[in-house]
Amino acid sequence: MKTAEERRGFMSKALIAIDNSGSYRVCATITTDLVREAVKIHDCTPTAAAGLGRVLTAAGMMGILMKDPDNKLTVNFKGDGPAQQILATAYGDGRVKGYIANPYVDLPLTEAGKLDVGGSLGIGELSVIRDLGLKEPYMGTIALVNGEIAEDLTAYFFISEQQSTSVALGVKVERDFSIGAAGGMIIQMLPDAREGAVDALEEMIGKMEPVTSIISRLQDNAKAGDAASDAKAGDADGNTDPGFRPLSEAGLVREMVEEIFSGMPEEYQVKVLEERDITWHCDCSRQRIEQALMTIGVKDLTEIIEEDGQAELQCQFCLKKYHFDKPQLQAILDSIS
Questions:
Q1: Around 127, how many Cα atoms within 13 Å sit in the side-chain half-sphere?
Q2: What is the mean predicted confidence (pLDDT) over 168-184?
Q3: How far apart are CA 193 and CA 197, in angstroms?
Q4: Is 98 helix (H, G, I), strand (E, B) or coil?
Q5: What is the C-alpha to C-alpha distance for residues 298 and 45, in angstroms, rounded to an integer?
Q6: pLDDT for the residue 2
Q7: pLDDT (average), residues 127-150
Q8: Distances in Å between the alpha carbon of 176 and those of 28, 87, 130, 166?
Q9: Calculated CA dihedral for residues 34, 35, 36, 39, nearest 10 degrees
Q10: What is the CATH number of domain 286-336?
Q11: Least confident stretch, 61-70, 81-90, 247-256
Q12: Rounded to an integer, what distance in angstroms lies between the CA atom of residue 319 and that of residue 316?
């Protein structure tokens, strides 16, 4: 018999909510499983895992806040630090992928005992490109505030999109380097927001504990509850308790939001509008890689054929390798000559 955790599956869940007064909206997610998958693919050190996980979580939330499923955005952090670059691409339907240029970056902890994501990026810039299906994509760029991702995105929303926003992100890396918890939250003020809502949010955010602390506690409580439920859910013959209801990932996100906003005045309490999925998904294909080879030009492609007689290209996001032998390269060259 499967455990409750196995029944839940590994889909990262998110929700979008609005407060009773219509002053602000919230997007919240728990991305522990998604970040685990990305960190496994890229074989990240703890510092790299924290940076990549935060960027993937933020991009995923920003993606589902767009209007159409086919809308696309790219969040790109570039700096002069050893991590060099952290990039994520997300879509309106919840798909997200990303990579870190140097997944082996390893720095001492900060004075506060935290992973030094800001130090790994160093001085640089944050760019956000939104492709909404118009003639030209929208692009905004700001200098990095501190490279810790959440603060940089908060500044980006205010400077480039003129939107008062608070971003909270977190990735908890355990002593064995596994991902214990990951997730985040975006709060955005809406037009004609009440001044009381701003004051209440500022007070709430000032008192809020780290998002990974909240997620870890909820996950631990869920596992304890699942163990108890598994004991009641079926007997040795596999008979199930008709009253058994495994806790869903969406339920954990709801609990997180309820806990965070529990102290808000009634008029500024939140109500859930929709639940969404955020999934790791790389859409690379052999056809796309062939198109990339076409862009290098006749001269360079001819040199590869004559000198190497083959080529192997690797997707930056999922690290899948695509091999092209000499006849295949010649066919590509013939198509562009």
A1: 12
A2: 96
A3: 7
A4: strand
A5: 39
A6: 37
A7: 95
A8: 27, 26, 37, 31
A9: 130
A10: 3.90.1280.10
A11: 247-256
A12: 5
Question: CA nearest 124: which of 39, 51, 211?
Answer: 51
Integer Cα distance of 67 and 64 in angstroms: 8
Q: 15 exposed, middle or buried (CB, 10 Å; 0-12, 13-18, 19+)?
A: buried
**pLDDT over 70, % of the chain:** 90
Q: Per residue in 96-132, is it b (16+ CB within 10 Å) or e — as a string?
A: bbbbbebbebebeeeeeeebbbbbbbeebebbbebbe
Name the class of domain 9-237+245-280: alpha beta
- On the question of pLDDT at 7 being above 50, the answer is no
pLDDT at 229: 59
pTM over 0.70: yes
Shared fold status for 9-237+245-280 and 286-336: no
- The residue extents of the domains of the chain are 9-237+245-280, 286-336
DSSP 133: S
| Residue 242: strand, helix, or coil | coil
